[in-house]
Structure to design on (1020 residues):
């Protein structure tokens, strides 16, 4: 097999040989000193492809943990009266038995699960697992680079993420419990151990973990931006980049600008907790004692947190958008519709994401006049988002659509993004937000638009680029089973939550018995819990498919199985260190020449034909 | 045992999934890649259409099914002045987004079906269309502009503070882990000053007893408000963040330790009127306890509720307080029946800075009636007294609870 590959030089190789650029890479890196043994190859690897796989598998691990946590608190919400004693072997003291031997989930543990689920999914899975995986995998491959600008920083980026995970994982086993004050960690609740047992050691470890995580994001982000701006191959101008790269670039810039603000917020919180400062604390009487802190404001923390927190949702969704744009175009056999509009809308979303943070704080006690400017920018952000949706729809129009798992998830992404995006228009309008803020309407909104949608983008990317990562395909039948059960199941989970929210049911309640107003929905809550369990099982199908296919999946026999134009499909089936065995390909056209003229697709490395040159002069 | 069972189930799942995978893979090998892809296009595009139809029907049908439980619909119309404007804005947004939702979901799955890959189909090479793109940038921009204008108008009205000289009821709500303390200003209409350092078991709000404005302030175990009169609720928190949430009145505002906030609103329906409205709906025409035919109907037991809407710890979901909206005379009668916290709990104790001294307010204590109070118009007082004698027994019961 390997021999024939070396012997036969296909059309792609000939193009690269003829027009490629010889950077003498393999002369200098002879013998591949980075990857000589198991540890340097698979563990402390500096190869962007291995690091991408590390991010992906770690992300999958955390997604399973985070998903299981959601099942635990969903059990409480759906079946508050049921005996949970059967969970005792797994959860130990967090299942409290009453005199009759009936077990229930302790409220402390319930809130710890809610908090950890949010933290893990937002940061570890949808930031590191999504952006970390695909930025690492695709940036060098799609821009024609040998590797990241700094492979060493790239390696550090993964290991800081790993360390952040270790710290958070250990905090789950503290006797006082993991942090339980919500993933937003608002002080004073998060600042005072007297207020909640999880706010003691649990919170200290949470802060440490997230600070390590930010280091990881920053190291990764610097690398992504530098690599995209400096290491593009000859001929690859910014306007010829695939939309994935544009999305990763803007994502990395947003991360670089907003995560440091989060750390500053955390630092002040750390001071308030440990050194006795009063940045966020003022006039507090708790545990029978009046504290000395005077003059601080918890609202300051909210500003600092959401200055990251809101861009963060775009850090999560932009890479998914980029992946979906790419996958939809390739499998519709059409150029992405309105390429420039897509780029400008990514940039516009990136820019506006910094001007909307206080829409999380309309009723937090900020000046109502300040809220006005945030309503304006929040609703403006719907415009570039709408443009993107219309462009995706137009990309499907007139296509010859290939229904494989990757493309199904891309189509599902568009459906989810529409459904979840539209409810944002309710919440962004401060007057409506008074009622809906902190209710299940918000839970439904952000789970659909940035949770499920971002997952769909990730799945589209995994199914699509799996052959590039492992040289094998994932099983298509299982992939489709996974898609349909997840699409239907996710809507069954989150759609009814809109009704809960409109009925005023607040989020983060341990039970709804105390209130007549919120107690009408036990049937619905059971339904949601059952749907959540089924969707979780459907994800296990994906996990099994993923790991089975790494070793036993159908082999990839051609370099470019999808007929795609971008550079990653010009590398060998199993690209080694440096990605291209000989010269680096040079680029002669944009990434979306699909169904042009008589051709099904024209690779980016193919020079313009005489006819095309004439046409481009006329335009 | 349970762990073993779980592991066995997992192993079974893995085996089943892998076998399904292998069978499908083999079937694919026999039939050829292209054939399998065409087949997949055929079935999945149709599945998409079926999903779209069921999804849209399901979303509309479920909304209609739950209509009467949702605030703003059925019996749950807003019980406050601004709430009506807010519900209007909600419905306006629902209309615009609903249209977009239905149209785009149909187009998405319809295009996916119509342009599914079939043998011999060649995709079009369309890269952009400036005119079309301008149109679909402009339309959302215009719709958003409309929503922003209406939204901010509503917002600004809601956020108005009391105008000088306006007649209003004032009270203060303090959230703590895990409950609320309601404080009414008493005869003088002024809430006395607080110093959080003086908070203690006996002085839960840290009121400064040297301040005479505190002497007539009342702590109550429910919120009672007169109908159709502006209410200004001052909001504070004693320990962590809480949020003052009155779902039926469309009121929500965070309570922030160290930073007082407020919310102004006007209740428009008394509790009785709201119950009356509920009694027309079959969901509320059932017994509170279905097994006990003597228990009251569900609508009879309805009460407005205050909830906490900002995570504040393990008891977050139990911070309930009943809100009663009543006619003005009932309100004043109720108010007269409340007693000053200072006089009932502090006066004469070690905590009283004026122990042993005579205070003007003492008259109230001895007589159980305000001593130096100016007489109000006799009609109203009669009405109140009549009402008081009616409800006094009832009140005693609730207080002992």
């Amino acid at each position: 097999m390997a021999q024939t590959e070396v012997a036969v030089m296909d059309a792609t190789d000939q193009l690269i040989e003829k027009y490629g650029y010889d950077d003498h890479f393999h002369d200098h890196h002879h013998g591949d000193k980075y990857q000589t043994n198991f540890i340097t190859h698979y563990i402390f690897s500096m190869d962007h492809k291995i690091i991408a796989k590390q991010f992906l598998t770690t992300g999958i691990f955390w997604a399973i943990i985070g998903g299981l946590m959601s099942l635990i608190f969903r059990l409480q919400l759906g079946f508050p009266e049921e005996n949970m004693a059967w969970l005792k072997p797994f959860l130990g003291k967090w299942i409290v038995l009453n005199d009759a031997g009936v077990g229930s989930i302790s409220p402390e543990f319930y809130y710890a699960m809610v908090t950890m689920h949010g933290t893990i999914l937002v940061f570890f899975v949808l930031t590191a697992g999504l952006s970390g995986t695909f930025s690492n995998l695709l940036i060098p491959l799609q821009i024609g680079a040998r590797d990241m600008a700094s492979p060493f920083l790239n390696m550090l980026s993964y290991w800081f993420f790993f360390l952040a995970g270790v710290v958070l994982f250990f905090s789950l086993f503290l006797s006082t419990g993991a942090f339980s004050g919500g993933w937003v960690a608002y002080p004073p609740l998060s600042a005072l151990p007297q207020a909640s047992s999880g706010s003691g050691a649990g919170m200290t470890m949470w802060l440490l973990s997230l600070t390590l995580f930010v280091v990881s994001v920053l190291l990764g982000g610097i690398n992504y931006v530098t690599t995209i701006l400096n290491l593009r191959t000859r001929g690859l101008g910014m306007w010829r980049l695939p939309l994935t790269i544009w999305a990763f670039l803007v994502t990395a810039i947003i991360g670089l600008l907003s995560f440091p603000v989060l750390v500053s917020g955390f630092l002040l919180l750390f001071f308030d907790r440990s050194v006795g400062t009063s940045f966020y604390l003022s006039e507090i009487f708790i545990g029978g004692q009046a504290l000395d802190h005077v003059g601080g404001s918890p609202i300051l923390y909210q500003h600092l947190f959401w200055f990251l927190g809101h861009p963060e949702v775009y850090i999560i969704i932009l890479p998914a958008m980029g992946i979906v744009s790419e996958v939809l175009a390739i499998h519709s056999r059409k150029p992405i519709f309105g390429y420039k509009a897509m780029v400008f809308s990514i940039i516009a979303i990136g820019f506006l994401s910094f001007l909307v943070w206080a829409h999380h704080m309309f009723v937090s006690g900020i000046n109502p006049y300040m809220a006005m400017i945030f309503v304006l920018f929040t609703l403006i952000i719907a415009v570039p988002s709408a443009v993107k949706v219309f462009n995706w729809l137009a990309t499907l129009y007139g296509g010859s659509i290939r229904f494989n798992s990757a493309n199904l998830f891309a189509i599902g992404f568009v459906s989810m993004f529409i459904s979840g995006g539209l409810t944002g228009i309710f919440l962004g309008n401060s007057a409506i937000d008074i009622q809906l803020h902190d209710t299940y309407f918000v839970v439904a909104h952000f789970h659909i638009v940035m949770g499920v949608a971002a997952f769909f983008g990730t799945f589209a990317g995994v199914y699509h680029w799996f052959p590039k990562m492992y040289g094998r395909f994932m099983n298509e039948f299982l992939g489709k089973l996974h898609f349909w059960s997840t699409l239907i199941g996710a809507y069954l989970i989150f759609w009814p939550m809109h009704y809960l929210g409109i009925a005023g049911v607040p989020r983060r309640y341990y039970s709804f018995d105390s209130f007549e107003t919120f107690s009408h929905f036990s049937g619905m809550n059971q339904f949601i819990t059952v749907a959540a369990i089924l969707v979780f099982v459907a994800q296990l199908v994906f996990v099994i498919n993923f790991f089975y296919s790494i070793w036993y999946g159908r082999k990839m026999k051609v370099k470019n199985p999808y007929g795609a134009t971008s550079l990653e499909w010009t590398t060998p089936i199993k690209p080694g260190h440096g990605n291209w065995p000989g010269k680096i390909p040079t680029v002669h056209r944009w990434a979306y020449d699909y169904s042009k003229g008589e051709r099904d697709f024209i690779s980016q490395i193919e020079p313009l034909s005489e006819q095309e040159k004439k046409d481009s002069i006329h335009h | 045992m349970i762990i073993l069972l779980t592991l066995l189930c997992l192993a079974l799942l893995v085996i089943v999934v892998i076998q399904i995978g292998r069978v499908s893979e083999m079937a694919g090998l026999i039939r050829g890649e292209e054939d399998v892809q065409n087949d997949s296009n055929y079935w999945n595009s149709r599945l998409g259409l079926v999903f779209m139809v069921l999804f849209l029907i399901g979303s509309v049908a479920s909304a209609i099914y739950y209509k009467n439980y949702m605030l703003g619909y059925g019996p749950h119309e807003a019980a406050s002045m601004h709430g009506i404007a807010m519900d209007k804005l909600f419905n306006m947004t629902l209309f615009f987004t609903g249209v977009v939702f239905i149209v785009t979901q149909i187009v998405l799955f319809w295009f996916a079906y119509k342009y599914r890959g079939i043998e011999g189909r060649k995709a079009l090479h369309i890269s952009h269309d400036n005119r079309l793109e301008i149109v679909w940038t402009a339309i959302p921009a215009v719709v958003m502009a409309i929503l922003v204008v209406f939204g901010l108008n509503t917002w600004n009205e809601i956020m108005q503070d009391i105008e000088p000289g306006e007649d209003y009821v004032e009270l203060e709500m303090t959230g703590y882990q895990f409950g609320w303390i309601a404080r009414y200003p008493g005869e003088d209409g002024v809430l006395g000053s607080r110093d959080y350092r003086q908070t203690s078991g006996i002085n839960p709000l840290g009121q400064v007893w040297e301040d005479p404005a505190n002497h007539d302030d009342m702590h109550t175990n429910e919120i009672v408000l007169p109908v159709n009169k502006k209410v200004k609720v001052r909001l504070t928190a004693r320990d962590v963040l809480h949020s003052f949430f009155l779902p039926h009145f469309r009121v929500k505002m965070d309570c922030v330790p160290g930073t007082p906030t407020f919310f102004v609103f006007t209740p428009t329906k008394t509790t009785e009127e709201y119950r009356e409205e509920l009694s027309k709906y079959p969901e509320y025409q059932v017994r509170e306890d279905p097994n006990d035919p003597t228990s009251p109907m569900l609508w009879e037991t309805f009460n407005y509720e205050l909830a906490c809407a900002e995570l504040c710890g393990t008891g977050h979901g139990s911070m309930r307080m009943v809100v009663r909206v009543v006619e003005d005379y009932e309100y004043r009668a109720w108010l007269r029946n409340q007693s000053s916290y200072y006089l009932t709990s502090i006066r004469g104790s070690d905590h009283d800075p004026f122990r042993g001294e005579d205070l003007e307010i003492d008259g109230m204590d001895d007589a159980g009636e305000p001593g130096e109070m100016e007489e109000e118009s006799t009609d109203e007082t009669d009405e109140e007294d009549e009402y008081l004698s009616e409800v006094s027994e009832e009140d005693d019961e609730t207080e002992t609870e």
In short: The first strand of chain B starts at residue 168 and ends at 176. Confidence is low (pLDDT under 50) at residues 365-378, 395-401 of chain B. Chain B touches chain A through 126 residues (CB under 8 Å). The radius of gyration of chain B is 31 Å.
